[in-house]
Design goal:
By secondary structure, the protein is α/β, with parallel strands linked by helices. It contains 7 helices and 24 strands. Helix content is 18%, strand content 33%.
Length: 424
């Protein structure tokens, strides 16, 4: 499978009479953009723009999506939602690099987060640096929470696809090519690496989708990394903001990017095993055993395992680790910690002796105070129920005191954050 990501850089974002990209300026026809959302069970929909450095707060955020569309080859991005369920990961995809669609709505409350475009809060989220088209929407009367999430998910994906499709004829600023040789017939002396990609799937409103299928309904499965980069994985969950993998994170997974960069240099990248995070013990056992079996079948020497969420999923994380290690597959875990405001508590809810190599993406309980913003998009009072916030978090002057877990992507467990480390 050979995939080209043709990146057209977006340096500015404005509303205007026609949607298109010219000289780095993305212009959006707001009326036409909203028309592409017709038939979705949302009301009071409006679009706003939030740019890097502006005094803007977006709260509460449901998802972030990078605008993309296929320009060559089979399928369409976000299969199962926008495109058919045909396999993606080949051909060419246009990426509006530097732009993002942000969906804003109080679906669950404690399981959304916020984005500050300037100030100390901006340092914790990558989306303070993107040019954001913000969709704010309320549910139609009588719409249940899970249906509200589904409507927002579809609206965000449809809007992101609309933006890219309107710019499909634009020449890219750069092209990235991703290709791996078939597993059969490989002859390399380099360490054979597999990536174990844990996806949140722990009940209603804790969903992640693979080709439109809720992954709680699948057994772990081997996929090509290009499928992830081409939109096969979409976020549908409302877990704590700090370590939620938004759809944007999936599309730009840094673990996959780094394994690709080093493939053929100091490692042999075998592929990605997608697995779920489960609620009850029997399901955790099933998925972790199946994951370890798949990794062994393809001849992996090393595994990198990334988590999504914390607490209960920590058991899935360390169970994967133990079973991989017992098959002789050396394993590195990437996670965050809930170690208390002082960092002195046990960081993970579970542990095994085999977990000897762990990368921390930060402590979700660290406290931050963010100043008031000139413009607040959404519902500022929702900080009282966001995970990490409380009833006294929102101060009379509009400033907020909260744990960083209320900030979207602050301790992202793919390493897509300001907190972390890198080999040099």
């Amino acid at each position: 499978m050979r995939l080209e990501l043709r990146r057209a850089v977006v340096e500015g974002l404005v509303f205007g009479p026609a949607t298109g990209l010219d000289g780095g300026l993305l212009t959006v026809d707001a009326d036409e953009a909203l028309r592409c959302l017709e038939g979705i069970s949302l009301t009071k929909m409006r679009l706003e723009i939030a740019r890097p450095g502006e005094s803007v707060r977006i709260i509460p955020v449901k998802d972030v999506i990078e605008p993309r569309c296929k320009v060559e080859g089979p399928g369409e991005v976000f299969p199962g939602f926008i495109g058919d369920v045909e396999t993606v990961g080949e051909g060419a995809t246009l990426v509006l690099d530097g732009a993002a669609v942000v969906t804003c709505a109080p679906v669950v409350g404690f399981q959304e987060g916020f984005i500050d475009m300037c100030g100390p809060g901006a340092d914790y989220t990558p989306f303070s640096k993107t040019k954001n088209l913000v969709l704010i929407a309320e549910p139609e009367e009588g719409l249940e929470k899970h249906a509200y999430e589904g409507a927002l998910r579809m609206a965000g994906l449809r809007l992101a696809h609309y933006l890219a499709k309107a710019c499909a004829s634009v020449a890219p600023d750069r092209t990235e090519t991703y290709e791996l040789p078939p597993l059969a017939g490989r002859n390399s002396d380099l360490p054979r690496f597999v990536y174990i990609y844990m996806l949140q799937s722990q009940g209603l409103l804790h969903d992640t989708y693979l080709y439109g299928v809720d992954v709680k309904k699948i057994l772990p499965t081997l996929i090509h990394p290009n499928e992830v980069l081409d939109g096969a994985v979409a976020s549908g969950n409302c877990v704590s903001a700090c370590d939620k993998n938004t759809t944007y994170h999936h599309l730009n997974n840094p673990v996959i990017a780094e394994l690709y960069r080093r493939h053929g240099v100091d490692l042999d990248f075998l592929g990605v095993i997608v697995t779920n995070e489960n609620v009850v013990l029997v399901d955790k056992k099933r998925s972790s055993s199946y994951t370890a079996k798949l990794a062994s079948m393809i001849g992996a020497d090393m595994a990198i395992v990334t988590e999504e969420g914390y607490g209960n999923p920590d058991t899935d994380l360390v169970m994967n680790c133990a079973k991989l290690e017992r098959r002789g597959i050396r394993t590195v875990l990437v996670t965050d910690e809930a170690a208390g405001a002082d960092g002195a508590s046990q960081g993970l809810a579970d542990a095994v002796s085999e977990a000897t190599a762990v990368v921390s993406a930060g402590n979700v309980n660290a406290i931050v105070v963010v100043p008031p913003m000139d413009r607040v998009l959404g519902w500022p009072e929702s900080i009282a129920t966001l995970s990490g916030g409380n009833e006294s978090s929102l101060r009379p002057d509009g400033s907020i005191e909260t744990e960083i877990q209320a900030i979207i992507g602050s301790t992202n467990e793919l390493g897509f954050s300001a907190i972390g480390s890198r080999w040099v």
